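Weekly modeling sync, notes
Attendees: AB, CL, MP (scribe)

Item 1: holo prediction request
CL wants a bound-state model with NAI before deciding which constructs to order. AB pointed out that an apo prediction alone won't tell us much about the pocket. Agreed to run with the ligand included and paste results into these notes for async review.

Input as submitted:
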Amino acid sequence: MSINTVMVIGAGQMGAGIAQVFAQSGIQVKLNDLQQDALDKGLSGIEKRLARAAEKGKMSAEDQTAAFNRLSGTTNLEDASDCDLVIEAVVENMDVKTKVFQQLDKITPKHAILASNTSSLPITEIAAATNRPSQVIGMHFMNPVPVMKLVEIIRAIQTSDETYQAIEDMTKQLNKSPVEVEDFPGFVSNRILMPMINEAIYTVYEGVASPEDVDTVMKLGMNHPMGPLTLADFIGLDTCLYIMEVLHEGFGDSKYRPCPLLRKYVKAGWLGKKSGRGFYSYE
Ligand code: NAI
């Protein structure tokens, strides 16, 4: 199938980045948010990033203008009525996501594919909430979207081969690298990343080493670009705890139990960079 018009729902950190890469790849994109101010912020962020890329000589001024002109903003979900693909990037909450998918199921054309950028919720359950489960799929972009090459494509148990193939082709057209993943907790990315972060927190909790030293070991010893505790502060400790709980509940295996120190930090409101304090101070 050909995908010519796309809507991205949620103009936050991820949604704005996703809309930008589609626009840069020559596709008409509508960016949607409930809030007009969130939408304005998302669109102006894209405009600034495109201008910076042009300034640095990464794209021509014509391409910059053309990419921005492929974008439009809307707070009306009904504008998805002519879209071939919709990518949902709203808050990480199952009730909110299923409601959005049920609305989209009514609004979009019959052939449209509905994708979610969720980082932890089951695509199979989102698909089951619609009347077109074979056309529902996970398209998990990484943050920051314009920079990161990977897209995890998550197949719900109901996803058809045709839907999978269309999304794999689309991902390549975005100049990203697709990886096919079955729908199990944490997919591949967070199933491996989050237990590593959790173990780094246990290492601090048990007094084995300081956060700085844990990060130094992983940077200089394992060639990681960023230590796990710096990365945890960047992701948000509340998000890390939430994903560990999804893994723990989903697999029922004690190896995924969240570290008590992680829980304590979240209870204190020490959520990492966004709150000014996590394993490091950002004040
Ligand atoms: P965010 O909080 O920056 O943005 C969410 C946006 O969705 C907000 O602007 C909000 O107004 C809007 N929104 C909420 N309900 C809506 C609705 N019913 N209709 C339209 N807009 C609505 O969140 P962020 O970080 O962009 O995350 C979005 C999704 O992407 C989540 O599912 C998250 O798990 C996933 N994700 C996040 C990553 C990250 O590093 N932040 C990485 C990969 C996936």
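Recorded for review: Residues 9-15, 32-35, 38, 89-92, 96, 100, 117-119, 143 surround NAI (CB under 6 Å).
Action items: CL to compare against the apo run; MP to circulate these notes.
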